[in-house]
Structures
1.
Amino acid sequence: MAVLTTDPPRGVLLRVLPPSMYSGRSKAVMERTFLTYSHVWMLFVSGAFEPLFYLMAFQLGFGKLVGEVVGPGGQTMTYVAFVAPGLLAASAMNGAILDSTYNLFFKLKYAKLYDAMLATPIGPLDIALGEVGWSVLRGGIYSVTFLGVMTAMGLPGSWWAVLMIPAALLIAMAFSAVGIVLVTFLRSVSQFDYINLVLMPLFLFSTTFYPLSVYPEAIQWIVRIFPLYHGIELMRGLSVGVLSWSMAGNVAYLLALAAIGIYGASRRFGKLLLR
Amino acid sequence: MTTAETKASTGRVVSTWLGAWLRVEGYWMWYRRYWLSTLYSTGLQPVLFLAAMGLGFGSQVQAGAATGGFSYLEYVAPALLVAGGAQLAVGESSYPVLSGFKWQQSYVAVTASPITPGQVLGSQIIWVGIRLTLAGSIYAVIAALFGSWTSFGVLAVILIGTLTGIACGTPVMALAATTYDEGARFGLVFRFILIPMTLFSGTFFPIAELPVPLRWIAWLSPLWHGNEAARAVSLGTVGPLATLGHLAFLVVLAGVGWALAHKYFYRRLVV
């Protein structure tokens, strides 16, 4: 019989955080998710295909309707090369949100998974980090596939495009963390439509499919508030190799969102389950 | 036994249609309470697509041969109604139907009364049809404010959207009736059938742009037939004979799906 004999790691986090928030076991949460996915691996693999279908549709059809578009730095580029980085950012967001909303809601309300976890030395921050970590891992696998196909199609314009992978991980981290916080406020399955109500406008209007200049000035400022817009700006700049200082701002925006989300998620788990 | 006692009896078997409508009334009661949370799937989703693709993306498209000489907004508006209908119908025919068998078990409860599995299936299809017509009408009104319609053919487009939705929905209901696990296969249906169908069935661009080996996706998909018929009545870009052919395909598919679902509903609910 396995007995837990070693003391949990006592790092600086444990001294800073309120006791019992964190025990350094977020890896166990990720391992558990990995094991459950190994039973439905088809579903996991299929997630990589969705953005590829979109890419194919843009290559074959949409690209024929639109000639050239003005990209970062004022250069003209083919429509497919313009839209592909946007799709990569959007798929990082969608993948992260899917994992951190529908699946998390089920685990939270019906499977009572976190009740069980919190009865062990695992703390709320472990759960938050573990769930976000899994989303980042999954987003990473998908974005590597996507970038591979983009490269095979000859779309990236520079070596900076390699940095699109860490950018995708950052987007996945920010959205899954915020998604977890929001889903803890939902009460019933029928409220999942609200998630789509937020997600779809983000997907459609964050300059994924057309340049920001399409909008009137006032709406441009609203779009600049959207988190996905910052992800797409980052991706599009990296894809063609046009770097600017505003990209530091994009990164800072997403990092701040991720930090707030992870903190908020651990607080919500603690509030909901540790009473 | 006096007549008064006979009247008090509750074991009265209702007619086929009334039995199904009793269930529809049940769905309606639920909907009256929760309509707000389904607003996204009821009409708002295609409106968002119309704003993004019709206006935003459309601003980059020159009206030309590919769009039949119409503006991209006019070209894409009828197809987005039909595509939105297909999405709604497949969604409503998957997990909610499985839930009737498995989680909520409302189908099991209802068939313990004189209502038959066939009536349960019929009521589900009628209800999806009502949802589709409602969603299509809401979308049509908002799209009219965008200036998307060229004629009153839009009224027929709403009906075509409903028919296409039912043709997509009944086969999924048959699938749901044969699903015993947690429904992971619906995820695959969405990813490998619904999304490719939405992208490659002439919704956003003519299938003539596709290489010939890929066009069979469009020819087999109910959405392409719905899109063509919808464009025929709103823009007049397809001939009347072809339109009848498209509608016939949809009716046959809906019928085959219904028959299969009927068989599996009885298999699962009659012990």
Note: Chain B touches chain A at residues 34, 37-41, 44-45, 48-49, 51-53, 56-57, 59-61, 66-67, 72, 184, 187-188, 191-192, 195-196, 199-200, 204-206, 209-211, 214 (CB under 8 Å).
2.
Amino acid sequence: MLVVTVFPLLVVLKTSLVNSSELFDTATDLLPTSPTVVNYEKVLGLLTTEEAIVNGGSGANINILRALLNSAIFTGVIVVVQTFNCTLAAYAFARMRFPGSKILFGAFVASMMVPAVVIMIPNFVFVRDLGLLDTRAGTVAPYVLMHGFSVFFLRQFFLSLPKEVEEAARIDGANPFVIFLKIALPLSWAPIMTIATLTMINMWNEFLWPFLVAKDPAMQTLPVALQSFRSQTPQGQPDWSGLMAATVIATLPTLAMLFVFGRRIVESVQFTGGK
Amino acid sequence: MLSIAPKVKATVAGYLFIAPALVGFLLFYAWPAARAVGISFTDWNLLSEPVYVGLDNYAEMIQDEQFWNGMKLSALYVLLNIPLQTVLGLFLAVAMDRLTKSLFVKATVLLPYLLSNVLVALIWLWMLDPLLGIVNAMLALVGISPQAFLGDPEQALISIAAINIWRHMGLVAMLFLAGLQTIPKYLYESAALEGASEWRMFTRITLPLLRPVMVFVLVTSVTGSFQIFDTIAVTTSGGPLDSTRVIVYYIIQNAFSFYKMGYASAMSVTLCMVMLVYTLFQMHILRASESDLA
């Protein structure tokens, strides 16, 4: 299994180090015979277009550092704001009594079941009418405010949290927001981080919405930039070495994430299915 | 008055807490869902004003071969994808449960899932390239002639299923592994004492007790697979010869390439209904899926 997982990545890495003119002769080699970093220079924008074409580029362009930065902003904003909003809402649904709370919670849960493509068209029209196409605000809009699954998941956790401490604080006259911040939140870091981790994975990889809304290269997230780099290359002879160099660079943040948060990621993913 | 005031206060506090999420729900889920139905009764190219056409879009849809082709391909894709992915994931989970507790192994197994669909599609597009790809180069070593894979109408959907099995197998395995770890070891010990074979223990203990996880995996992966889009956008764009023009791809194409917003919405509303029926059917099974341990 490890071979199955790692082998394609090694092939990609090898390809990225081969000069495109040598691809045919080296198809079965597992190591590059005469490694070159020219493909990396190409996708990092270190070569002029003419130099890139001489080295087997197609003239297509990708600004991979800008795409990485866009992805980081997109993911970061959504993880922080959405997780906070969902935690607030989940706490209210678990702990507060107010008219309509059951119906609203039911509606939130139902929102998980609507296929993305159904709301995609009206959302696109809405964001366009707001004049937010090709802006960061438009790209994050459908995600930052809420996510049905996160509210559902965090509410389950708050329901299982013992009430006594909060009751005591309430009797002492603390207001609900203070109780939430000072008591409930500190006890809830583990599930909140679980949800934040899952949101991070999903948003880092999100494709369809950013693809529809952010056509402007200056706003493209990494998956969108990679797809447009790929579709700019001619069908007959794509610049495979260049594409694979871009792929390697795009894989690095995920590898780094896995290296730093490996246990957290594995546990977060397992937790959703186990419960 | 005194008895009402705290209630009002609690209501205000509750609504303040859910306010951001509620605004998000209303603006980006509830309203667009209703609006999708509204748009589906119109003819609209995004530039001019929408024109009300009643059920025309739905009538057109029923006669549109591409619509039925898309539905059929999506269903076929689920059938290609899910059984293999589930069985391989389960097998892998059992193997990991027995052989290793290593975090490194788990992380490696999960890695493909952590890469985006776009990246995974690019990686395999290259590996499966008919001329230069390593898969054909390796097939040549054992004497098999080169295959077109994504370029062959017969093989394209299968190739896409294989790509996504590669991406999701590890995820499925991790979910099953979490389930396996909730099964008490004494069940196996006593079964072993009675001389039960490995296979018997697997079919009589492991499988029944994994049922809740199994249901979760199937519900999420079937609905997810039915909505496949990203991989197709990168690899085949619906071709060759419409062999991968699954329903979501066709809907997005109608909306954002042909600017037939009304028609695309009619198909998406229909897709939503199909998924709803499927989900209700699954909920029915879910109710029967309480763990045998409880």
Note: The longest helix of chain A spans residues 240-274.
